[in-house]
Amino acid sequence: MNTVVKMILTLSSIGVISGGLLSRVNNWASPLIAANLKAQTEEAIFNVQPAAKTYELVKASGVEVYKVFGDDKIPLGYSLVYSGNGFQGKIRLMVGLSPDLEKITALEILEQIETPGLGTKVTEDHFRNQFKKLETSPMIILVKGVEPSKPNEIQAITGATISSKSVVAIVDDGISIMRELKKEGKI
Amino acid sequence: MAKHTPLSKEFLKGLWEQNPIFKQVLGMCPTLAVTVSAINGIAMALATTFVLVMASMLISIIRKLIPNQVRIAAYIVIIATFVTIVDLVMKARFPVLSKALGPFIPLIVVNCIILGRQEAFASKNTVFRSILDALGMGSGFFIALITLGGIREIIGSRTFLSYQVLPNAFEPWLIMILPAGAFLTLGLMLGFINMYTDRKKNLEKESLIDQYRNKTKSESAGTVAAQEGI
To answer: Which residues of A touch B65 (CB under 8 A)?
Structure first.
């Protein structure tokens, strides 16, 4: 009986002390972690909309869309966060769009777990810069092996066709949702 | 139960003689997974060492209070507390590193180096010795991870700690930053280390045998000479 009581007492006191300590550390860390996340999102928003000065979250749209403004509150377009399946897991990206959704300003990959050295090339400038000033209608097309000839074409990365295809598909999906939202007048 | 191991030995044994990676082959999961670059290895090793030292210290202090039946549970709770602290601090202060190391920081909880040291050392030794032991093991882990991460980073992406060390003419070996590269590198390193220790052991054995032979020869020669002389 004595050992049982001792066991329960020791474990509970260790648990209580650990819990107390962790709650203190968490109180200190959680605002910092939230600030880091916000800073990351903010950086991405301005990266995909280089001319932007301020932004606001579009509420009641169901997706994460930020409306960005230049000087004097002139609307410059949108920064859309969208995700979908890549080669090995989810790819989460942010795409900057013009106000009429016809042109992409820039693309930023936020999260991905593609194959190192192959699929991860989608995060590199060489691939991402193709999206700058890209036309979105009727949709973005992926071409393999040849230079893009039309203003809505993207060249796939050699050895990472699936990752390239996924990025284009995610952007296309995101834009089609944006178009619907626009039709409904929600953004 | 007084111990007569010198204090320096408690620290140094972790570096080579009982190196957690090369000799004890413990904690393989984080070792193989995070060592795509040297900096990841360093961060992982520092985080693990911190948890190891803190847990060893605390467990060594309260080792007489913990009933034997619940000792593992108690160790795990204490280790998990420190790991969570490290995880939160990293997320708050070093978000980039924390993203790179991903789920492997929380997984330090089940790193067998830490639990192994608590069970094998901290629960039986004084606080000071436990801290030394933890520091030694942590440093051994650090050496192993930075070597492994360094080799993989240099061959896999031409850089070391993000500074380019190999010329552009060198085509990086993609396999080195894939999981297969981790197995290959670690396997070769373990192989070479075993070869080295085996050779050293054989040399020692041979020199001992030689010594013994020479001794017996000279002794018998001496006795013969002495007999003839008389």
So the answer is: 10
Per-residue tokens: A32 = 């910092």
Query: Per the domain annotation, does B225 fall within a domain?
Result: no
- For tokens 């995909």, name the residue: A48
Confidence of residue B1 (pLDDT cuts 50, 70, 90): very low
Residue A102: strand, helix, or coil: coil
End-to-end CA distance of chain A: 68
| Residues forming a β-bridge with B159 | B164
Please give the pLDDT value at position A167: 93
The whole-angstrom separation of Cα A187 and Cα B133 is 61
What three-state secondary structure class fits A104?
Answer: strand
Residue with the two structure tokens 């016809």: A102
* Residue A92 dihedral angles phi and psi, to the nearest 5°: -115, 130
CB A170 within 8 A of CB A91: yes
**pLDDT one-digit tens code per residue, B77-108:** 999 999 999 999 999 998 888 887 877 888 88
Q: What is the pTM of this model?
A: 0.79
Chain B positions in Cβ-Cβ contact with residue A36 (cut-off 8 Å): 91-92, 95
What's the burial of B226, exposed, middle or buried (CB within 10 Å: 0-12/13-18/19+)? Answer: exposed
**How many angstroms separate the CA atoms of A183 and A177, rounded?**
10
β-strand partners of B110: none
How crowded is residue B38: how many other Cβ atoms within 10 Å of its Cβ? 22
Would B210 be classed as within a structural domain? no
B34 touching A (Cβ < 8 Å) = no
Residue B228 included in any domain: no
Going from N- to C-terminal start, the domains of chain A cover 48-184
How large is the C-alpha radius of gyration of chain A?
23
CB contacts < 8 A, A to B, total: 60
Displacement of CA B220 from its chain's centroid (Å): 48
Total domains in chain B come to 1
> Chain A: nearest CA to B85, how far in angstroms?
7
Which residues have a Cβ under 8 Å from the Cβ of B128 and sit 6 or more positions away?
A: B7
Give the C-alpha separation, A147 to A130, whole Å.
11
Domain of residue B115, residue span: 7-189
Tokens of B31: 């070792």
Does an H or E element contain B136, and which?
helix B127-157
Tell me the torsion sign for CA atoms B49, B51, B54, B55.
Answer: negative
ipTM above 0.95?
no
Cis amide prior to B67 (ω within 30 degrees): no
Asked if A10 and B66 come within 8 Å (Cβ–Cβ), the reply is: yes
